[in-house]
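User: Here's a chain of 388 residues. Predict its fold as tokens.
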Amino acid sequence: MGKTVRRAYRYRFYPSAGQETELLRTFGCVRKVWNLALDARTTAWYQRQERVSYVQSSALLTEWKKTDDLAYLNEVSSVPLQQALRHLQGAFAAFWDRRAGYPRFKSRRKSRQSAEYTRSAFRWREGQLTLAKMSEPLDIRWSRALPDGAEPSTVTVSRDSAGRWHVCLLVEERVGQHPAAEFVVGIDAGLTSLLTFSSGEKIANPQHERRDRERLARAQRELARKQKGSNNRGKARRKVARVHARIADRRKDFLHKLSTRLVRENQAVVIEDLSVRNMVRNHALARAISDAAWGDLRGMLEYKCDWYGRDLVVIDRWYPSSKTCAGCGHLAASMPLAIREWVCVNCGTRHDRDINAATNIKAAGLAVLACGGSVRPKREASRAGSSR
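Assistant: Prediction complete.
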């Protein structure tokens, strides 16, 4: 048993001087086309209440290439420019469906520099990748092998703010489902312990950002002292970016290993539907919550459970898992965050706050798996009185 999935493999590569020049030129043209198309769509809507489609944007691109001011767009491969228009169309579709905000203009310094090539714009031969407008293959560091017989359908080249070059190959791969497991785990997310399992195990918060905070602060101070526009300021900015990249890479590696373990060991994983966007508005905890990256972990669990035949159950965010006694079901009146252990006034059971919450989350997930539907939060005593 298994299923065919589209999977991305990301590698470092080191371009030659000519390849770097060509890629930087392509990045600039992609950014220019995005901004021109976004401006055209915005103008059409606010002046004439018209929506510009991808086909209309593509026709505009053809006209732009014919002008003297934008003739340089003809010097790079046309495929990344068309892909930029497709991505803009997807951004507007997400905006209209209220899944994302209004698309933003791109800048060279603040936006991610990338270009996407489809099958007609690159050559894949004997494990070597050659992009359009280039005569030599990319010098890729193959840190892991591609699946046997896999050929990339899409290639995305990018350079991050730390100056590192990456190429991402999208391939179709058949993944086998994991053998059936007998365990179901409920997970309570936190900051002192990143995760607490219903089994009683606690995963310590690695606090990647906090561990490098001194190094980051030192690099930022050096950046602040440099004169704007100078070469030294550019070097200092890349140094700050390298510290951020180190933090992000370590965090992603930790979350990948943790999510893989959860999916491998459990038949079902039960989590809470946390509103991280609202939680980071608490300025006292925003830095720690962002470093915990609960949203990234949920995203990993979603696609890994789908790939390997596991169930992911998401419990309503208002379910009072911390205030409910896992022994008798009694609902406490209140449970401030400072209380880490408490005794149920109904049955006298002493609870560790996080383990009790994880146990309740697991029980709610089992109810969903058995009966379907969703878990509704219990009504508190103060809200359960007679209607007026």
